[in-house]
Amino acid sequence: MARKQRLASALSLMILTIAAQAENFIRVDEDDAAARLQTAVTRYEKDGASVDLIGAIHLADQAYFEQLNVRFKTYDAVLFEMIGGEKFAEAKQPVAEPAPEKQEKDLSGLPKIYDMVAKFLKLTGQSEAIDYTAANFVHADLTLAEFTRMQQERGESLLGFALKAGRDAPEPANAPDPANAPDPAKLLQAMLAGKSNLVKLEIVHTLGQGDDQIAAFAGESVIISDRNQRCLEVMQRELAAGHGNLGIFYGAAHFPDLEKRLLDLGFKRGKQEWLNAWDIPKQEAKPAAAETKDAA
């Protein structure tokens, strides 16, 4: 039972940290056969250069990451988010005798949480599926030392930020249907039964709902605005180096603010396409309903 409680807590934190997205960049596409959590690839163009905002979620189907890996090879450079990801850039540099590195602890504890949730939901972790050492991958985020220092200066934390976003953000213009909210009893029943698809069906609309909670705090956060600022600094450097076909692989919650910044720089929004991150078949729900009826 303790493990189930830990898993429930992990699911709750995952929802808090990635649910507050904008409907222009993440959505749920649903029919009688399946529910699909989708992320967008949105193009912005200026003076012959193109920049694609490629929405990412940390846990997804293996097929989703395989599709992304194929796409990444088509860009001059892929700018990626990862606090502390500078280690991948350093690994590409030849070193005769690497000096021993001081291992810095992950301050959020999120890797362990995502690993627990991924195993239960039968999903693949982004860090496992994406080759960040690829030649065209460019770190476009804060270093761990920078992030830690800036959060301390602002008095921020990942959990505190998520809770504040959920508590204080304005109501979205297009509020999600209350009927799509997770049913705590069904969610617990699905978890206890080990039914990963049923759990995903319960939470997928929460993850895909189109509100602007995180965007509402973009102007005063290390987690969104300061990291986006660093990303665009790297983008400008790559464009100046003659790389006119760029991909920005960042979490979709960053994109309302990134889009505003790109438009302010004179970019024009172009085509958009959608990729299936979760493809959840619904047939698993029918036997569960039948079992409940028989038990009654």
Q: Could you please describe the fold and organization of this structure?
A:
The protein has 296 residues and is an alpha/beta fold. The chain has one domain (2-92, 106-295). It contains twelve helices and nine strands. The strands form two sheets. Strands 1, 2, 3, 5, 7, 8 and 9 form a seven-stranded mixed β-sheet that branches. The protein has a two-stranded antiparallel sheet with strand order 4-6. The model is unreliable at 15-21, 95-108, 172-176, 210-218 and 287-296 (pLDDT under 50).
Could you provide a short overview of the structure?
This protein is an alpha/beta fold. Helices cover 45% and strands 20% of the residues.
How many alpha or pi helices?
12
Largest sheet: 7 strands, mixed
Poorly predicted runs of 5 or more residues? 15-21, 95-108, 172-176, 210-218, 287-296
How many separate domains? 1
Rg for CA atoms: 20 Å
Rough outline: globular
Question: Averaging pLDDT over every residue, what do you get?
Answer: 76
Distance between the termini: 24 Å
Query: How big a fraction of the residues is strand?
Result: 15-25%
Query: What portion of residues is helical?
Result: 40-55%
Structural class: alpha/beta
Order of helices and strands: HEEEEHEHHEHEHHHHHEHEH
The total of beta strands comes to: 9
